[in-house]
Amino acid sequence: MQFPLLFGLLLTGTLYSQLELAEGSKILAVYAFPGKSHFMMHTALIRELVESGHQVTMVTAFSLEKEQLGSNYTEILIEPVYDFWHDVKLNFGAQHLFELTRMTNYDFLKMLEIIGLKTTEHALRQPKVRSLIHAEQKEGVFDLLLAEQFYQEAFLALAHLYKIPVVTTSTLGYENHMSQMMGLITPWSFVPHGFMPFTDRMSFLERVKNSYASFYEDMDRLLNYFPKMDAVAREFFGPVLTEVPKVKHMERQISVMLLNSHAPLTTARPTVDAMVPVGGMHIYPPKPLPADMQALLDGATEGAIFFSLGSNVQSKDMPVEMLRLFLQVFGSLKQRVLWKFEDESISQLPDNVMVRKWLPQADILAHRHVKVFITHGGLFGTQEGVHYAVPMLGIPFYCDQHLNMNKAVLGGYAISLHFQSITEEILRHSLDQLIHNVTYKENVQRVSDIFRDRPLEPRKSAVYWIEYVIRHRGASHMRSAGLDLNWFQFYLLDVIAFVAIIALAGVMALSLAIRLLMGSNKKHRKAKQN
Ligand SMILES: *[C@@H]1O[C@H](CO)[C@@H](O)[C@H](O)[C@H]1NC(C)=O
Ligand SMILES: *[C@@H]1O[C@H](CO)[C@@H](O)[C@H](O)[C@H]1NC(C)=O
After folding, report:
1. Residue 422: CB partners within 8 Å, gap ≥ 6?
2. Looking at the structure, do residues 144 and 172 belong to the same domain, yes or no?
């Protein structure tokens, strides 16, 4: 009798009893956007949740079958994978991604909206997703909805249907338009828009451009994008909901947002507790390399260069002259080169260069001989480079890549090149600096130490906040009251107008008094003269 009582007391008396409440929760995850890099974050998160004892049902663009997540993971696979690059080519006339460097940021925004709408519709059309929407039993089936913070807002209606809180994951990290959903003010004076090639220190002209881009996006979302996404939500949720909530309303109900960013890779900016930086979630302790790569890197006594342009930009699509230029420079180096190149039968490959369709990027970067990482500057790759303290040569193409590389250049651990203007001399000089000039390595080591220094490891932090939202059935206590104000109240325009009117009334009263006084004076004088 005593023993169980004591045990029970211990259990309820500690914080752990509370933590256990959220154990074995039923989570619905909707990761329908078929972007390979996005799944680096999703896969890590789902794995961590399942390993923490939760049951996850995932609507997914890619199968996680090879992750072997066991019986607590249920997959609703979207088939076939939606080919959104087809839409990009159709709408913007780009043949391959090397041409995207010529696209404007406004085109990019338009592109994201198009592919967001198309992939959302594609997923919602799937019979298995429809059965989720039309299921008879919805009470108590799920405890939480996990969704991506990326042009997929119609899925938020699932949370409304199942009456569950929402946690979103933002693969791009912080974005300026998030202030609208979290009820805060993001100063465009020092917070650069995610697609602008700026840092947090902007010149006057840059601030003009930054403000325009941020304002343009806010207005475009409100007036152009949301109505379209609302129509998609209405089409698929209309039959089961008497009133489908507006996207603008649903995105303001998000409990917690997990952001793929972390200091010092993101600049200081206003935030709320519900925005949790978990950048680097996809980085695990290094695994052993395949034997050939291990041998190549072990033997690279002069150092090695790792070259990858990520999963979207394919090195094999590179214009031939540029390809020849890279091979020419690589061939003349004492360092060995590992290149992620999709066509392994490349001709005239120098002896010191190894190409592979696929390479375990993070594990390679972890090798002590890797001296330079040539990258397109994607967020996931940049985080890995920083984590393992490898100086970078950036060749950014689009979206946030310019911003990421600018930040790295400013941090003194990268050199960034414009793809179209790379010459043999520029490439040779940049590599030589990154390999031999110790300042780059020293800087990246310092940034790396800061990036790794956290109260809680990123995957643990993500799971903690998800369980927190489940435990408290949402996080309305963290929600900014600013979300319920009118825009003119939010920006204090009513108060400013009030003060201005009082001031104006004061000035008017004063001038009236002066005029009256002078008038009576004049009369007085006139009367005297007469
Ligand atoms: C699946 O989840 C249940 C409930 O949380 C848990 O008891 C069980 O151990 C889990 N099974 C596996 C294989 O992890
Ligand atoms: C090393 O790099 C720093 C930063 O770019 C530069 O100021 C310095 O001149 C370089 N040193 C040499 C010897 O090239």
Report:
1. 322, 325, 395
2. yes
